[in-house]
Every structure is written in C-alpha cells, then in structure tokens.
C-alpha cells in the first residue's frame, strides 16, 4: 500500500519536521519538504500530499497568521491532531567563524521574535536577515556555494548543527526557556477523530456587519454553555476595512453536547461558521465542567422540554 504523504516546512531538521516525526516515522510516510506553510497546505488541496504539518500557534507570537489565513478560506480542510514542540535555538555559523564576526543573523521571522531580547543583550548591533525556515540558512552554509553568504550566522534548531556540519557560537538562545510551538496535522474533511475527554475544537467565525454587540453575542454562545476558549484571534477578511474573521480554539469536542449547542448558536447568529476540526489536546488537560453543562444535563433538559411540551412534566 502507498505510504501517506506529508507536506511540511523544510528543509530537513526544522521544528516542523520534529513535530512530523512525533506523528509518523519517516519509514512509514513520505516526507515532502516545502518552502512555506501556505505551500504545504496547498499541496494537500492539490492532491500532491495527503496531509500537511504546519505551525499554528507559538508562545511568543500567538497564531501563525499564514496558517490561519490559509485554513480560513478556500477548499475546506480540517485539523486532525496537534503536537507541541519546545523551541530554543543555537546560534551557528560556518566552521571557522566566531561570535565576534557576527553582525548579520539569518533567522525565520518567528525565531527572530523569540530571541529578540537575547540578541539585544548579547549582540546589540546584529541585524536580521529573514529566512524561509529555521534550517534554510543551515542548508545554504552546508551547500558551500562559491558566492558570499548574505549572513554571518543563523538561529537554528540545536540538532541542525550536526546535520549541516555547522559551528556552535551560542547555545540555549531564547527569550523564554518554556517557549513552545503548537503544530497541527491538516487533512481532508472526513471522520472526526473520536472524543477523548480532553479535546479541542477549532472554528472560523464571521460576525454580522454593523451590529452593536455582535462580538459579545458570539462569545456568549460559548460562555452560557460553559465552553472555555484557549485562543481567539481576529484576522482581516480582506475585502474591506473593518471586516474581520475570528479564529477560535474552544475546549471540547463537537460531539460534546455543550460544544455542539454552542456551534448551533453560532450557526444561528453568524453569517459564516467553518468547522476546522475536533482533535485530542496534546497536553491531555480535561476541561472544567461547570454546573449544568455536562452532556447528561443537556440530554436531561431536552427530555424535560419534551415532557413539558407534551403536557406530561411533573
Ligand atoms: O519549523 C521550523 O523550524 C520553522 O522554521 C518554523 C518555526 C519558527 C519558529 C518556531 C517554530 C517553528
């Protein structure tokens, strides 16, 4: 049988690849490195890959906008699983370089944000040379082209030093020791992974135009059913100023009564709701269930209403 094909941000050794390895071993899948997350997602839509693994959120920057925007419109795709990867960097360079040589640092924009304070403290004169991924500059150094490189050193995932034969200039480069990036497996809609009791549901919601309190009304759909949100971000819809799309992670599974009821409420009140999947939480933390919002409470309330309507309630 053909192996499943996974598109991800390459080249080899990125944090995205570390996330992909948590999902499936390279022996059991075809790894398809891409130059950006939009291309990884597009490869699934085009049928060139079965799944994509992409960063969706980081402790430093919140949502990864390229991922959120690619998923918010276009042919519907869903999130099937999430994976957390702790993130810290090594400042590395071609053999022979020293820290004193470093002025231009190549780094993925998200990496640069996560190391800004460290750089300001240790290399205050350094300038950022944007890279397409955390290992793209390492691959450039390793390819040893004849031309002069446009950077002196790069922020790379620690294992990339060995993979690409680099020299370490500084280790444990990070502004926060607990920095984590969250990755998701993206695939075509189909069977939703079954509830585990510790799940997350991702949604895209548009609000009615020019309606006072529309945002509050949207949030109330979750609040009154005891559904906690773990992420909410607004992104421009892109057609005119003032029109925003909300990207939301809610605790729970679409098969949980309180989550299902909240999504029905959104469907009634909002012009556009896209279900982006229910999948197990990587940290396996179960939601706090408030009084009256357990599955059994919704089922009981529905049967009570049936009895009231039928005149048989006691
Ligand atoms: O996957 C990678 O290594 C990337 O280049 C993207 C990235 C950037 C910063 C933190 C985590 C992932």
Automatic annotation (TrEMBL):
Keywords attached to this entry: Amino-acid biosynthesis, Aromatic amino acid biosynthesis, Lyase, Phenylalanine biosynthesis
Enzyme Commission numbers on file: 4.2.1.51
Organism expressing this protein natively: Cellulomonas edaphi
Domain (Prephenate dehydratase): residue spans on this chain: 5-188
UniProt xrefs under InterPro entries: ACT-like_dom_sf, ACT_dom, Chor_mutase/pphenate_deHydtase, Preph_deHydtase, Preph_deHydtase_CS
Entry superkingdom: Bacteria
A family per Pfam: PDT
Primary enzyme class: lyase
Annotated ACT domain residues: 203-280
Protein name per Swiss-Prot or TrEMBL: Prephenate dehydratase
One Gene Ontology term of the molecular function aspect: prephenate dehydratase activity
Catalysed conversion reaction: prephenate + H(+) = 3-phenylpyruvate + CO2 + H2O
Pathway: Amino-acid biosynthesis; L-phenylalanine biosynthesis; phenylpyruvate from prephenate: step 1/1
Gene that this sequence comes from: pheA
Entries under NCBIfam families matching the protein: PRK11898.1 (NF008865)
């Amino acid at each position: 049988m053909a192996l499943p094909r996974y598109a991800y941000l390459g080249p080899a050794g990125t944090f995205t690849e570390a996330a992909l390895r948590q999902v499936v071993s390279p022996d059991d899948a075809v790894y398809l490195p891409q130059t950006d997350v939009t291309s990884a997602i597009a490869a699934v839509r085009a049928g060139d890959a079965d799944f994509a693994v992409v960063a969706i959120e980081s402790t430093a920057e919140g949502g990864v906008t390229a991922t959120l925007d690619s998923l918010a419109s276009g042919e519907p795709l869903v999130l099937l699983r999430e994976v957390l990867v702790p993130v810290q960097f090594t400042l590395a360079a071609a053999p022979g370089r020293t820290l004193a040589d470093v002025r231009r640092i190549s780094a993925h924009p998200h990496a640069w944000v996560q190391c800004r304070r460290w750089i300001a403290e240790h290399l205050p004169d350094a300038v950022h040379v944007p890279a397409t991924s955390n290992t793209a500059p390492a691959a450039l150094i390793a390819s040893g082209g004849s031309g002069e490189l446009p950077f002196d050193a790069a922020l790379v995932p620690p294992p990339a030093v060995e993979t690409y034969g680099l020299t370490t200039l500084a280790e444990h480069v990070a502004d926060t020791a607990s920095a984590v990036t969250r990755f998701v497996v993206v695939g075509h809609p189909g069977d939703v992974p079954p509830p585990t009791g510790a799940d997350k549901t991702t949604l895209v919601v548009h609000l009615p135009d020019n309606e006072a309190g529309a945002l509050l009304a949207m949030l109330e759909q979750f609040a009154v059913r005891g559904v906690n949100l773990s992420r909410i971000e607004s992104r421009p819809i892109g057609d005119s100023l003032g029109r925003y799309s909300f990207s939301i992670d809610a605790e729970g599974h679409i098969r949980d009564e309180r989550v299902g009821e909240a999504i029905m409420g959104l469907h009634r009140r909002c012009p556009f709701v896209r279900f982006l999947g229910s999948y197990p939480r990587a940290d396996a933390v179960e939601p706090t269930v408030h009084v009256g919002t357990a599955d059994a409470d919704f089922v009981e309330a529905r049967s009570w209403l049936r009895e009231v309507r039928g005149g048989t309630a006691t």
